[in-house]
Design brief:
With 389 residues, the chain is of the alpha+beta class. The chain has one domain: Cytochrome P450 (Cytochrome p450, Orthogonal Bundle). 43% of the residues lie in helices and 11% in strands. The chain has a 6-stranded mixed β-sheet. Helix 7 packs antiparallel against helix 8 and helix 10 crosses helix 11. The relative contact order is 0.19.
Length: 389
């Protein structure tokens, strides 16, 4: 065991897989102490079973109000409830359960199945736009980002004409290097926007999710604004990154295009939300043979868990023929992503339509030269140049 903090592992330039150091962390007895970028020291949890234990142990909290909660930089990455009420991923049961109970009916398998027609319409609309122009494009702003943005806007009842506002402000919130002032301004603008939108829903309800939540009247106004903000951000940013990177990993492994299991393997292999599940021990707890004291921060590494060879044979290979449904790309336990069925549907439809309608699709830049996001809470691409002539 070691308690000497190591530098926080970073993905290698040009590589889509997780940091190489994760393999070493999984082989190290106990846990490893690390210094977050510009922030606090934490325990890194790298093994699959240990990650699942952290995400389910009631002695470990996701509430940033607890002393010792991990901070990345001076601004942190989880909003406090006094700044964004309703950001329920930062709440513990039973308070967290109240929000989840209100939202679960909106994200069931049946409800998402009913949305597939609308998702297909959005995807095909974006492909028609691509086909109407030159046979080359940056797939991030023309497809990967607008598809989930359009879908989540339709689901929530947010006018897509306002997408520039929420997309640009979201980029500030998920960027590690953003200053306190920048993040506060971005969050404030988004909350103000959501508050006005919800007020409009109260007067003129529609058939959208936000209107249904207003009608249920189980959340306060500020809570509803925070929930709407969380759903809007989570509903487009993570999926956009998965679409873009998923296209790349399939283009560089073309034998798997169209294969069953592609969506689950993309989610496992890429694990774009690797570091979002920040935690803190609220009681002394032992994880992987390491005693973690109350008040010590913990970072369960989702990408490391999803590349654990003891759980996924040949984990470093992209292989959709494997059974990967038990990955932790959506987290695990009570905080497991509510929108996972929506994400799966969007990826399935997006990949299927894109590769069938653009059979000559290929990268317009060497894979190692892709503009990958390294300064962010989520892993993704800034740009994705492709062509199909």
């Amino acid at each position: 065991m070691t308690t000497r903090p190591i530098e926080f592992p970073a993905r290698a330039r040009g590589e889509l897989g997780p940091p190489a150091e994760y393999a070493h962390l999984r082989q190290t007895p106990g846990l490893v102490r690390s210094a977050l970028p510009g922030g606090t020291d934490v325990w890194l949890v790298a093994r699959y079973e240990d990650v699942r234990t952290v995400l389910t142990d009631p002695r470990i909290s996701s509430n940033p109000m607890h002393p010792g909660f991990p901070q990345i930089g001076t601004n942190g990455t989880v909003p406090l409830r006094d700044s964004v009420p309703g950001w329920f991923v930062g709440y513990d049961p039973p308070e967290h359960s109240r929000f989840r109970k209100a939202l679960i009916p909106e994200f069931t398998v049946r409800r998402i199945a009913e949305l597939r027609k609308a998702i297909r319409r959005v995807v095909n609309g974006r492909i028609e736009t691509l086909l109407a122009g030159p046979p080359r494009a940056d797939l991030v702003p023309t497809f990967a980002l607008p598809v989930p943005s359009l879908v989540i806007c339709e689901l929530l009842g947010v006018p897509y004409t306002d997408h520039d506002l929420f997309e640009s402000r979201t980029q500030v919130l998920v960027r590690y290097s953003a200053t306190d002032a920048e993040r506060e301004e971005a969050a404030g603008e988004l909350l103000e926007y959501m508050t006005k939108l919800i007020s409009s829903k109260r007067r003129f309800p529609g058939r959208d999710l936000l209107s249904r939540l207003v009608a249920k009247d189980v959340l306060s106004g500020p809570e509803l604004s925070g929930v709407a903000l969380l759903l809007l951000i989570a509903g487009h940013e993570t999926t956009a990154n998965s679409i873009g990177l998923g296209v790349v990993v399939q283009l560089t492994n073309p034998e798997w295009i169209g294969a069953p299991g592609v969506v689950e393997e993309v989610l496992r292999y890429l694990s774009v939300a690797d570091r979002v599940a920040l935690r803190v021990a609220v009681e002394d707890v032992e994880i992987g043979g390491q005693l973690i004291r109350a008040g010590e921060g913990i970072v369960p590494l989702g990408a490391s868990a999803n590349h654990d060879e003891t759980t996924f044979e040949r984990a470093g290979q992209f292989d959709p023929s494997r059974s990967a449904r038990h990955h932790v790309a959506f987290g695990y336990g009570v905080h497991q992503c509510l929108g996972q069925h929506l994400v799966r549907a969007e990826l399935d439809i997006a990949f299927g339509a894109l590769f069938s309608r653009l059979p000559n699709l290929r990268l317009d830049v060497a894979p190692e030269d892709l503009a990958i996001k390294y300064d962010g809470v989520l892993f993704g691409l800034h740009e994705l140049p492709v062509r199909w002539d």
